Structure formats: structure tokens, C-alpha cells
Amino acid sequence: MTGLLLAALTACGGGGPVVERPPSAPSSPSEAAVAPAVPTEPTQPAVPEQTPVERALSRMSVEEKVGQLFMPVIYGTTADSASEENQARYGARTPAEVIEKYHLGGVILFPYNVKSVSQVVGFTNSLQRASKVPLLIATDQENGLVSRFAAVMSTFPGAGEIGKTGKPELAQQVAEATGKELRALGVNLDFAPVADVNVNPRNPVIGTRAYGDDPTLVAKMVAAAVKGFDAAKMAATAKHFPGHGDTTVDSHTGLPVIGHTKAEWERIDAPPFKAAIKAGVDAVMSAHIVFPKLDRSGDPATLSKTILTGLLRDELGFTGVISTDALNMAGVRKKYDDGEIAVRAVLAGADLLLMPNDLQKAQRAVLAAVKSGRITKERLDQSVTRLLTLKDHRGLLAKTPVASAAKASSVMRLPEHRKLAALFR
């Protein structure tokens, strides 16, 4: 290396003086001194950022988590309207006070909450402002016989009339139109579509609320309706699991018993629920019916772990929200008091406790069951996580939901919605 360098310098310098490196400099890379290693701090593993659901869950007390499970009726047409009914039932005067007192996860609206488009929008907005965590604001807008918002929304036919057409695309269009109008009003969860197969002509409670008596047709209609609601960004609910179609007793007033074998259930009742799950339905509602061949306990499906967890979750693979049917109905109140009903529903696998007959007693019972360990904190977190996941999926956790009265007025009874409804006249 040194010789080559001298030769090069000589060639370029025409015999001028040669400048050599200082003796201390290394003459080759192999002779270079190795720099001493500098101690470094140990690398800390990156902490994954919490999801909106995890963040919301982490900020809740046990009382607030328990509150997320409940969806009662409320009385009034504004969040701050005092009501004797609210005071008598909940120990709070106004809807806003009821929400705050029980840390409610949701409320369900009925015709007595509905006066006009602008009133409903103002009501749902003020309900959301009253809640620390955005609410599920629900209703039963099946259309046809069960139409809670008939005073302000488009008038569409019920499932039975749609089913007679044999056209799933019409079920999808009606569901999408219904979902758009509800969403504009500030409602974000519809307890529809009905997924029951009405094989009993004497059924006193389902009847034309179902798409028909053919499991294959009903399954297609239900799947189409779920897709329609989803297109409208509306959470949908398939009901009433495991199937309320073959009853002669109304579960509002009694406890129906269905004698289908497991094979018959698979053939008759299951297809629409399987189709709904495959279509991505947000929630499934339980039925207050006894299915002895599915569960020998004698308890209604709403209180059956065998049916809600074993059949719906484990066998059918449903991972969304399980809602009870209304807990003030006679079908679920035959054997247990209102507090025990709520606890048993959670233990069975339910996430959303709809319309408890006695909210104060039910809330205290569930809270006591969590504190005693009968309902584990892990089990409670499972339900709250599912409810928060539904809210996040529907855009409720990203920002406080706000409806617009002007937009709602423009969406209600759109010409294309009236044209769609006219197809069935």
C-alpha cells in the first residue's frame, strides 16, 4: 500500500518531495483501532395503542360497565321533560337523569316518544349529550304491524307482504330505506328483521311479521334485509332466537313451548339465523320460549346458556351482541324475580338486557352478582366489549352522534321511498 502511494505521488509530482503519513496512522484497514462500544439503554417494547373500544372500557367503573347492559323504556319527548312515570319506575324525573343515574348503555323509543321529525332529532341529540358513552338508541321498526315511528316515517309493508313477492331485493331496498330514515332521526339500532319461520297458522304473535313459512325463502329475505340495513349504516337485529314461528302462545302473556327436535330445528328454524349471521347481522334477539329438545332445563331461551352460548355462539359462531327480548314480558317472568332474571340472562350469554320490568332491582342484582363473583368481571367485560364494538362499528365512539333536523326532514318520505312503498299497493 505504501509503495503504491509513493509511486503515484512520484508520477504526479515529477520527482517532487514525497509526503508520508505520520507514523501513528494505521497503514491498512486491518491495523485500524476498534472503537470502544458505547453502552446503550435497553430497548423498551412498544406499547400498542389502545383501540377506541379498549380505551372506553378501561375508563369505566364496575357500575358503569353494568349500566352498559341495560336498555329500558323512557318517558317523555325531551331529555329534560319531567315525568311521573320516570320518577315512579326509576327514581329519576327526566330521561337525562335516568341515563345519568344508571349509566345506561341504551334506550328504546316507542310511539309516545315521537311527535315530529324535529322533536325526535332534538330528543335523540339531547339523550346523547346526557350520556358519558354514546348510547344505542333503538326501536322496533319492523314496518307493517310493528311500526313505532309511523307518525313521521315512510309507510312500508310488513315482512309477510314482502315475502309474498319472492324478491329478496325488495326486502333489501325496504330495509335500506327504513334504515336511512331512522338514522337521520338519530336512531342507530333497529330490532328488525324478524327471522322466525311462521309455520303455525295459529301463531298469535308472529304471523305476518315473518317473511313466510318457507325456511329457504325466509333465509334469503332476512339476509337481504340485513344487507339493506347495513348499507344505511343501521345496526340490525335478527329475532327471535332460536325461532318463534311454531307457537300458539304469545310470549308477552305466557310461556310458549316448542317441541321441535334438534333436526327439525336445523331444518325449519335455523336457516334464517344462519343467513343473518353470514350476512353480518349486528345483534340477535332471544325468545322467551321453551325448547325442551334443545335444553331440558325448562327455562326459556333467554335464560338458557345451552341455547344462547352453546347453540348461538359456539355452534352457529355468532360473535355479535345478544339482546334479550323485553324482560317485562310474562314469558320470562314465570320462575324468577326481576333481579334474578337479569342475572340469569347475563350468565346465559345475553349482552343487552332489554326493558327490565324493574330496572332498579335488575341493576342492583347484576351489580351484586359481579361484586360477589357469580358474574365474573371477565364475563361482564365480554358483554361490554361486544356492546362497545357494535357502537364503534356504527361510528358512535369516534364522535358524539348528532342528527340534523334539516337533513332528517329531507330524508323522511323521500319520493323514491314513496315509490318503493307504492309497489306493494
Tell me the name of the CATH homologous superfamily. Answer: Glycoside hydrolase, family 3, N-terminal domain
Reported by name, the CATH topology is: TIM Barrel
Radius of gyration: 31 Å
Largest sheet data: 3 strands, parallel
CATH class descriptor name: Alpha Beta
DSSP summary: helix tally = 16
Task: List low-pLDDT spans.
Answer: 1-34
Classification by helices and strands: mainly alpha
**Succession of helices and strands:** HHHEHHEHEEEHHEHEHEHEHEHHHH
Helix content: 40-55%
Oligomer: single chain
GO molecular function, one term: beta-N-acetylhexosaminidase activity
Family: Belongs to the glycosyl hydrolase 3 family.
Protein name: beta-N-acetylhexosaminidase
GO biological process, one term: carbohydrate metabolic process
How would you describe this structure to a colleague?
Its EC number is 3.2.1.52. This protein is mainly alpha-helical. The protein has a single domain (64-422), classed as TIM Barrel, CATH 3.20.20. It has helices spanning 2-13, 52-58, 62-68, 84-90, 95-102, 117-129, 159-165, 168-185, 215-231, 262-278, 305-315, 338-348, 359-372, 377-393, 405-411, 415-422; strands at residues 70-71, 106-108, 136-139, 141-143, 146-147, 189-190, 237-241, 283-286, 321-323, 353-354. The strands form 4 sheets. The protein has a 3-stranded parallel β-sheet, with no helix packed on it. Strands 7-8-9 form a 3-stranded parallel β-sheet. A two-stranded parallel sheet has the order 1-10. Helix 10 (262-278) links the parallel strand 7 (237-241) and strand 8 (283-286). The longest helix has 18 residues, at 168-185. It is globular, with a radius of gyration of 31 Å. 50% of the residues are buried. Mean pLDDT is 91; it is low at 1-34.
